[in-house]
Design brief:
mainly beta; 8-stranded antiparallel beta sheet; two-stranded antiparallel sheet; 1 helix; 12 strands; globular
């Protein structure tokens, strides 16, 4: 057993996120285990860039209200206690609504060469506004 008592909060890198986002790493992929997990906190309006995961991603919301969007325009509203599974290779983004924070535990299974994430371009303000309109905001 390993008892981890300190997981520092880090500011998420600006080249992968819009707005203020904070990370606490829970598990980092390391052979033979490949699970990566982090508690990610988004301030209102903050969001990830478009990205995909080689083996998919699971998001479990712990607090607040947020959005998950895909390239085909599908957007879901997510709240505390809910889970979203993004399939392998699907380009998507996630973040808080414009008026509420959102925190989730993000889980990925690494592909043997890292966490398998491919980071893409930022979600534009127009794409974000369209996503908010989709959920009735």
């Amino acid at each position: 057993m390993e008892h981890i008592t300190d997981t520092p909060t880090l500011k998420a890198p600006a080249e992968r996120f819009t707005g203020d986002v904070y990370l606490n790493m829970i598990a980092t992929p390391a052979e033979p285990a490949r699970l990566g997990a982090a508690l990610v906190r988004f301030t209102p309006g903050a969001r990830t860039n478009w990205h995909s995961h080689a083996l998919g991603q699971t998001l479990h919301v712990t607090d607040g209200v947020g959005l998950v969007g895909t390239r085909d325009g599908n957007v879901v509203r997510i709240s505390a206690g809910e889970t979203v599974k993004c399939p392998a290779g699907e380009e998507h983004w996630h973040g808080a609504t414009d008026t509420t924070l959102m925190a989730h535990i993000a889980m990925v299974v690494g592909d043997g060469t890292g966490d398998g994430t491919t980071w893409l371009e930022p979600v534009t303000d127009g794409q974000y506004a369209a996503a908010l309109a989709t959920i009735g905001r």
